[in-house]
Amino acid sequence: MDWVAVQDTSLRYEVRGTGAATLVLLHEMGGTLESWDLVIEPLSAKRRVVRYDMRGAGLSEKVRGRLSMATLAHDLGGLLDALKITSPVVLAGCAVGGAVGLYFAAHHPERVTAVIATSPATGLRPEQKATMLQGADNLEREGAGVLLARLGQSYPEVVRKNAAHFETFRNRYRCNDPESLAATFRMLIELEMTRELESIKCPVLVLAGEHDLVRPQPVVESIAAGIPGARLRTVASGHFMAFQTPNIFLSEVEAFLDELVSSPSRLSVGHDSG
């Protein structure tokens, strides 16, 4: 792992694997590059994989003040430039990371081959905004530990198959920088990506979790419906698919990537359950 200066901030990143194709992993709000620990080895066996701590997360530089989706997307482009990755990449992201991938694909289509978005956080329903604003205030006042109560929705009992993995996730989650998380909360309150979603030209796989109570299946379905040609798959997982159900995540991702290589014209719109 290493650090690189991008724009006005320092980002921690890791590159694994080799090959002509590059997959970039974008973690969830409150996550780190370790969010992909349970899938990184098989993913990097076939291709080069880049993962990093987004601005404000993990061991990257923290956020003070406002944060925007444009800034997070600019960080991604800057990281690719710093690593001299000029060929188009596949982006795979969870929640806010999924939104970053979709936003980047909309604004930089020449740099993206495809996007895989699990439970993408492309905005909030009106009735959620007051709660999110209160959550931001609570974070700044009480620290990241206040978010642990939310794990009942994002990491429900039904997907806690491995107690050690859950404890690792829980303990890592509470180490988040409260101000950076609060800035992310406030970014989501203002976020509206309808135009970006409508403009995406590359193949997109959207994954919804049957047990995701943070971004339920109907919400994810509506996001996928707003992306021309997007494929929607519903799987037996929760909000953090790559960590909660790594085998399911890997199966969906590898099938999509294999089809992308062999028959890109077949990646057309469709809704499935898996």
Structural class estimated from helices and strands: alpha/beta
Enumerate the spans where pLDDT stays under 50 for 5 or more consecutive residues: none
> Percent of residues in beta strands?
15-25%
Distance between the termini: 35 Å
The count of β-strands is: 9
CATH topology, anyone? Rossmann fold
The count of domains is: 1
Q: Shape from CA axes?
A: globular
Considering DSSP H and I runs of 4 or more, what fraction of the residues is helical? 25-40%
Strand order of the largest sheet: 1-2-4-3-5-6-7-8-9
Q: Could you explain how this protein is built, in words?
A:
The protein has 274 residues and is an alpha/beta fold. The protein has one domain (2-273): Alpha/Beta hydrolase fold, catalytic domain (Rossmann fold), CATH 3.40.50. Helices cover 40% and strands 19% of the residues. It has helices at 40-44, 69-82, 96-107, 129-142, 151-154, 163-173, 178-190, 194-199, 217-225, 241-244, 246-262, and strands at residues 2-6, 9-16, 22-26, 48-52, 89-94, 112-118, 204-209, 231-235, 270-273. A nine-stranded mixed beta sheet has the order 1-2-4-3-5-6-7-8-9, sandwiched between helices. It is globular. It starts with a strand and ends with a strand. The model has no long low-confidence stretch (mean pLDDT 94).
Which tags fit this structure?
single chain; 274 residues; alpha/beta; Rossmann fold; nine-stranded mixed beta sheet; 11 helices; globular
At a glance:
The chain has 274 residues and is α/β, with parallel strands linked by helices. It is built from eleven helices and nine strands.
